[in-house]
C-alpha cells in the first residue's frame, strides 16, 4: 500500500514540476489534490493507488461509451497500422470521406458540406470566419458582427471568446476581442413568476427580433448552444426558441450557427438538440462526443448555398482561408466512425431515456432542499442550482467556493463531480447503470449538504 501511495504522490509531484493545467489556478494544488489517472474502465477512472472514480462529467463532456472502449480501441489500432495521417490539402482518404458522408446523413437536412478541424473552439472559429467570408463574397462586407446570448460560452480561442459572455474572460482579454451584440438568454431559470419555459422563450424571441431589426444590416450570424448553455451553468431553454430563431434569421437575412459541440450526439435526448425544434441551422459545430471522447476532432457542417459562395476560379480570390495541420486526421476520423457505428448497432438513445428518467427520479428530492433554487434536466444533462437563500435566489459569494467543496467531497467518495461555480451537474457516459447513477446522486446530495454548511 505504501508503494501505491508513493506512486500516486510521485506522479503528482512530477506533473506539478512542469505541467500548466487548463482552467486552473495552479496555486490551488497546494491544497487541492492532483489526481493521477493511470487507467480507464467503462465509466470509471482509476488512479495509481487503485482508487476508482465514477466519471460523472464524462471527462469534460467528451466520453460517450466509456473509457478504453474495446470497439473504438480496436478500430484505432487497425487504423494506426494502415494510415496515421496525411496532408488534407489536395489529398484525401477513405475514412474522412465515409465520415463526412455519414455526418451529412444523420444531421438535419440541408447540411451538405463538412469542414474538419481539431477541436470545439476551432470549429467555432471556422463557422464565424465562414459566415463572415460568405457575406464578403456576396458583396456585403459591412456584415462584421455576431449576436450571441447572455451567459454563452463557445470556446477559448479569440474568435470563440469574442462570442462568449463569460465575465472573467471578457474582463481579462477584452482588448483582444471582437465586441458581440448580446441578446438576453431564453434561460428558463430567469422566468417571471408564473411564466412557463415556453413563455420565456417567446419573450426572449421578441428581444432578439428587436436586436435584429436594429443590427441585421451589420450582422453575419446568431450563434447559440441549442437547448443547454453548458459552461454558462447548464442553463436550459424551451425548443420553441430555436424554432423562432430560425424564422427570425431567415426573415432578417443572417446566418444561424448551432454550437452542438457539447449537446450533440445524444446528450439532450435526441441525436442532435436541433431535432427537438425541427430546425436546420446554416452551420452546425460538432466535437467532443464525435470521437466518443478518444481523440480531438471537430466538424462544421454547412449548406450547399454557403459552399457555392466560395466556389470560383482561383483568381477570383474567394477561397475559404483556414487550415489545421491535423485536419481530417485518419485516426480521429476512424474513432468517429466507430462511435457512429455504436449508435447504429445499439439502442443508445432508448437506453439513455430510461437512464434519464431514473436520474430525474433520484434528483427530485433535492427540489425541497432549502439551498436549492432549481433542479433542471435535459436528457443526460442534469443540474442543481445552489443558493444561499431559496426565497430570493441569493447566491453564495463566489469567494466561498461552495462548489469546490462538492468536488473535493466527490473525490473522497469515488466520484468525479466538477461543479460550474455553485451549479452541481452530472453528465455521465452513456454506459452507466442505474446503480452508478445512484452513486453519483448520493455523493452529490451528501456533498451539497457539506457545501452549504457554514464553517
Automatic annotation (TrEMBL):
<keyword id="KW-0663">Pyridoxal phosphate</keyword>
<feature type="binding site">
    <location>
        <position position="323"/>
    </location>
    <ligand>
        <name>substrate</name>
    </ligand>
</feature>
<feature type="binding site">
    <location>
        <position position="153"/>
    </location>
    <ligand>
        <name>substrate</name>
    </ligand>
</feature>
<dbReference type="GO" id="GO:0005737">
    <property type="term" value="C:cytoplasm"/>
</dbReference>
<dbReference type="GO" id="GO:0004015">
    <property type="term" value="F:adenosylmethionine-8-amino-7-oxononanoate transaminase activity"/>
</dbReference>
<feature type="binding site">
    <location>
        <position position="60"/>
    </location>
    <ligand>
        <name>substrate</name>
    </ligand>
</feature>
<dbReference type="InterPro" id="IPR015424">
    <property type="entry name" value="PyrdxlP-dep_Trfase"/>
</dbReference>
<comment type="subunit">
    <text>Homodimer.</text>
</comment>
<comment type="pathway">
    <text>Cofactor biosynthesis; biotin biosynthesis; 7,8-diaminononanoate from 8-amino-7-oxononanoate (SAM route): step 1/1.</text>
</comment>
<dbReference type="InterPro" id="IPR049704">
    <property type="entry name" value="Aminotrans_3_PPA_site"/>
</dbReference>
<keyword id="KW-0808">Transferase</keyword>
<keyword id="KW-0032">Aminotransferase</keyword>
<dbReference type="InterPro" id="IPR005814">
    <property type="entry name" value="Aminotrans_3"/>
</dbReference>
<feature type="binding site">
    <location>
        <position position="288"/>
    </location>
    <ligand>
        <name>substrate</name>
    </ligand>
</feature>
<feature type="site" description="Participates in the substrate recognition with KAPA and in a stacking interaction with the adenine ring of SAM">
    <location>
        <position position="23"/>
    </location>
</feature>
<protein>
    <recommendedName>
        <fullName>Adenosylmethionine-8-amino-7-oxononanoate aminotransferase</fullName>
        <ecNumber>2.6.1.62</ecNumber>
    </recommendedName>
</protein>
<feature type="binding site">
    <location>
        <begin position="120"/>
        <end position="121"/>
    </location>
    <ligand>
        <name>pyridoxal 5'-phosphate</name>
    </ligand>
</feature>
<keyword id="KW-0963">Cytoplasm</keyword>
<feature type="binding site">
    <location>
        <begin position="324"/>
        <end position="325"/>
    </location>
    <ligand>
        <name>pyridoxal 5'-phosphate</name>
    </ligand>
</feature>
<dbReference type="InterPro" id="IPR005815">
    <property type="entry name" value="BioA"/>
</dbReference>
<feature type="binding site">
    <location>
        <position position="418"/>
    </location>
    <ligand>
        <name>substrate</name>
    </ligand>
</feature>
<dbReference type="GO" id="GO:0030170">
    <property type="term" value="F:pyridoxal phosphate binding"/>
</dbReference>
<keyword id="KW-0949">S-adenosyl-L-methionine</keyword>
<feature type="modified residue" description="N6-(pyridoxal phosphate)lysine">
    <location>
        <position position="288"/>
    </location>
</feature>
<feature type="binding site">
    <location>
        <position position="259"/>
    </location>
    <ligand>
        <name>pyridoxal 5'-phosphate</name>
    </ligand>
</feature>
<dbReference type="InterPro" id="IPR015421">
    <property type="entry name" value="PyrdxlP-dep_Trfase_major"/>
</dbReference>
<keyword id="KW-0093">Biotin biosynthesis</keyword>
<comment type="similarity">
    <text>Belongs to the class-III pyridoxal-phosphate-dependent aminotransferase family. BioA subfamily.</text>
</comment>
<dbReference type="InterPro" id="IPR015422">
    <property type="entry name" value="PyrdxlP-dep_Trfase_small"/>
</dbReference>
<comment type="function">
    <text>Catalyzes the transfer of the alpha-amino group from S-adenosyl-L-methionine (SAM) to 7-keto-8-aminopelargonic acid (KAPA) to form 7,8-diaminopelargonic acid (DAPA). It is the only aminotransferase known to utilize SAM as an amino donor.</text>
</comment>
<dbReference type="GO" id="GO:0009102">
    <property type="term" value="P:biotin biosynthetic process"/>
</dbReference>
<dbReference type="Pfam" id="PF00202">
    <property type="entry name" value="Aminotran_3"/>
</dbReference>
Amino acid at each position: 500500500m505504501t508503494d501505491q501511495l508513493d506512486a500516486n504522490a510521485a506522479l503528482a509531484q512530477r506533473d506539478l514540476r512542469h505541467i500548466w493545467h487548463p482552467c486552473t489556478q495552479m496555486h490551488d494544488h497546494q491544497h487541492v489534490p492532483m489526481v493521477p489517472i493511470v487507467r480507464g474502465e467503462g465509466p470509471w477512472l482509476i488512479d495509481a493507488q487503485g482508487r476508482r472514480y465514477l466519471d460523472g462529467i464524462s471527462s469534460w463532456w467528451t466520453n460517450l461509451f466509456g473509457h478504453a472502449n474495446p470497439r473504438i480501441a480496436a478500430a484505432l489500432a487497425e487504423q494506426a497500422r494502415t494510415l496515421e495521417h496525411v496532408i488534407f490539402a489536395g489529398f484525401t482518404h477513405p475514412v474522412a470521406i465515409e465520415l463526412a458522408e455519414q455526418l451529412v446523413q444523420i444531421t438535419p437536412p440541408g447540411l451538405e458540406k463538412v469542414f474538419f478541424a481539431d477541436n470545439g473552439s476551432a470549429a467555432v472559429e471556422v463557422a464565424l470566419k465562414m459566415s463572415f467570408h460568405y457575406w464578403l463574397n456576396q458583396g456585403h462586407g459591412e456584415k462584421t458582427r455576431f449576436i450571441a446570448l447572455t451567459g454563452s460560452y463557445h470556446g477559448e480561442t479569440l474568435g470563440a471568446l469574442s462570442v462568449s459572455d463569460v465575465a472573467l474572460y471578457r474582463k481579462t482579454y477584452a482588448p483582444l476581442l471582437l465586441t458581440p451584440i448580446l441578446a438576453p438568454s431564453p434561460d428558463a431559470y430567469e422566468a417571471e413568476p408564473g411564466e412557463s419555459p415556453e413563455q420565456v422563450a417567446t419573450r426572449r424571441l421578441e428581444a432578439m427580433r428587436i436586436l435584429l431589426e436594429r443590427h441585421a444590416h451589420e450582422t453575419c450570424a446568431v450563434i447559440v448552444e441549442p437547448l443547454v448553455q453548458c459552461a454558462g451553468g447548464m442553463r436550459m431553454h424551451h425548443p420553441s426558441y430555436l424554432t423562432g430563431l430560425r424564422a427570425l434569421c431567415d426573415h432578417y437575412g443572417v446566418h444561424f450557427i448551432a454550437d452542438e459541440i457539447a449537446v450533440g450526439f445524444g446528450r439532450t435526448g435526441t441525436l442532435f438538440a436541433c431535432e427537438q425544434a425541427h430546425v436546420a441551422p446554416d452551420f452546425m459545430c460538432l466535437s467532443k462526443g464525435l470521437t466518443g471522447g478518444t481523440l480531438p476532432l471537430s466538424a462544421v457542417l454547412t449548406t450547399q448555398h454557403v459552399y457555392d459562395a466560395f466556389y470560383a476560379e482561383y483568381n477570383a480570390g474567394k477561397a475559404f482561408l483556414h487550415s489545421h495541420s491535423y485536419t481530417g486526421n485518419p485516426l480521429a476520423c476512424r474513432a468517429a466512425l466507430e462511435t457512429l457505428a455504436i449508435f447504429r448497432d445499439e439502442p443508445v438513445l432508448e437506453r439513455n431515456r430510461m437512464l434519464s428518467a431514473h436520474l430525474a427520479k433520484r434528483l427530485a428530492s433535492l427540489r425541497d432542499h432549502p439551498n436549492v433554487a432549481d433542479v433542471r434536466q435535459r436528457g443526460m444533462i442534469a443540474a442543481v442550482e445552489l443558493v444561499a437563500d431559496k426565497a430570493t435566489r441569493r447566491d453564495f459569494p463566489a469567494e466561498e467556493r461552495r462548489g469546490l467543496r462538492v468536488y473535493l467531497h466527490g473525490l473522497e467518495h469515488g466520484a468525479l463531480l466538477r461543479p460550474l461555480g455553485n451549479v452541481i451537474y452530472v453528465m455521465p457516459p452513456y454506459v452507466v447503470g442505474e446503480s452508478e447513477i445512484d452513486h453519483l446522486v448520493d455523493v452529490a446530495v451528501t456533498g451539497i449538504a457539506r457545501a452549504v454548511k457554514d464553517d
